[in-house]
Amino acid sequence: MNNTPTTTEIITIAGMSCGHCVAAVRQALQEIDGVEVQEVAIGSAHIQRDPDQVSNQQIVDAIEDAGYTVSGINQEPAH
Prior knowledge:
Blueprint: E1 7-14, H1 19-30, E2 35-41, E3 44-49, H2 56-65, E4 69-75
Antiparallel strand pairs: 1-3, 1-4, 2-3
């Protein structure tokens, strides 16, 4: 991995209702180079992303291709 700082983001996702949904979104996100999945739950996902390697649009496209709707991507505040 390069030295570019990653951003931690919270993705709000509509249309998820069960464990299968969580697994489908996790799989879609894990297939994107430059994304590290931290947690996926019904309605949201927490990821780390290399902004030089992957755009928000690529994340939205992957989740929508899995059958869900992204209603927001927010950068998590630094601790």
